[in-house]
Amino acid sequence: MKKLFWISIIALILFEAANVYFIMPMPGSQDMNSLDLAYFLNKWRWAFRILCVFGIAYGWYKSNWKRAWVPFIPLVPLIAAIYMANFDMAADQMFQQPRHVIFKDSIGNQVDSNRQVLGVVINNVAKAYPIRFMGYHHHLLDTVGGKPIMVTYCTVCRTGRIYEPIVNGKQEKFRLVGMDHFNAMLEDATTKSWWRQVTGEAVAGPLKGQQLPEIIGIQSSLSAWIKMYPNTLILQADSTYIEEYGTSTNYETGKSRKQLTGTDSLSWKRKSWVVGVIAYDHPKAYDWNRLKTERIIHDQIKGTPVLVLVAKDTIGFFAFERPDSNAIFTLNENVLSLNNHHFTINGKGIDTTMNLKPLPAYQEFWHSWSYFHPYTER
């Protein structure tokens, strides 16, 4: 019975550690293909905990202890392990959702205009979500132009996505559950399926293989966003999390050298920046250093003529489908020109009724884009 007591204690400590290890950025954990194991441990966590607690209680009760205080000694590291695994190191405890979601117009805005935002326009309603805030919260449920959306951002992948939070035909709530291969994962409240932030795909659970509908967003500086959409609303800081947001711009500008979120200034390295573009399900990556230098690149992705460009402030970026392979654009400041017709940097016609067709484009670390798009061109 003493063996049962000690085995149950050790098993529960190891279980709590494993339940965190496989879904958090621990040494070696994110390079393993252990998603199914992580989901299994998470799904059956309460059954395993109850079994271990029963073994501890039964072993303690049936054993003859010469010193009555001995069995209480291992309870200290056990309680510490349980607390750390479920509070200190739990993803949704480390990165919480905002308690006060406040938007202001450009006049009342208190966010530095040089900060980067992830913006979206739906039914002529524009909203901007500062990356400084989204990098902490990881996701935010909101409504824009009458449509429910979920804005997401993963600092370890350096990429934002916007989805419709619709699962099985109804609006769903999500929580941050951890990460896999350095990308944030979200769990829906109803089916407990796990969804990958970078693709919107359910990768574990009952809905494995299903996809969240994606909405194309725009990443730019706040000042450039306001010029494009003067009537925009801008997410403000939640005063509860000021310390968590931090104030440094090192991450946004690429000056950070932290292991998970730092940037490699050279091209095509693990932490180098790329702009990933998808044209009719075909992915292609463009080197950020080259884009900053040239600002405009004419290309084709599997026969689709495309245009990839960077704004004058070298923060915003855009991708469009060209009308045909002979359409050669010029870029002056933030104005595109084609055959004496002019377009804003976001593809809206200035002196023409024609607008350019946007393509999904994402700034991302090369290690992330290449892993989640293994057949990408570059």
Could you please describe the fold and organization of this structure?
The protein has eleven helices and 25 strands. The chain has helices at 2-21, 35-43, 45-62, 75-88, 91-94, 131-137, 222-228, 242-245, 250-253, 288-294, 366-372; strands at 103-105, 116-122, 125-130, 139-144, 147-154, 159-163, 166-167, 170-171, 174-180, 183-188, 194-196, 202-204, 214-215, 218-221, 233-235, 273-279, 282-287, 296-301, 304-310, 317-321, 330-332, 335-338, 341-344, 357-358, 361-365. The strands form seven sheets. The chain has a five-stranded mixed sheet with strand order 1-15-3-2-14. Strands 4-5-6-13 form a four-stranded antiparallel sheet. Helix 1 (2-21) runs antiparallel to helix 3 (45-62). The mean pLDDT is 94.
Q: Strand portion, in percent?
A: 25-35%
Which sheet architecture does the biggest sheet show? Answer: 5 strands, mixed
Spatial strand order of the main sheet: 1-15-3-2-14
Could you list the spans in which at least 5 consecutive residues all have pLDDT below 50?
none
Mean pLDDT: 94
User: What is the 3D form?
Assistant: elongated
What's the number of helices?
Answer: 11
Structural class: alpha+beta
Q: From the alpha-carbon coordinates, what is the Rg to the nearest angstrom?
A: 24 Å
> How many E strands?
25
The helix content is 25-40%
Cα distance spanning the termini: 62 Å
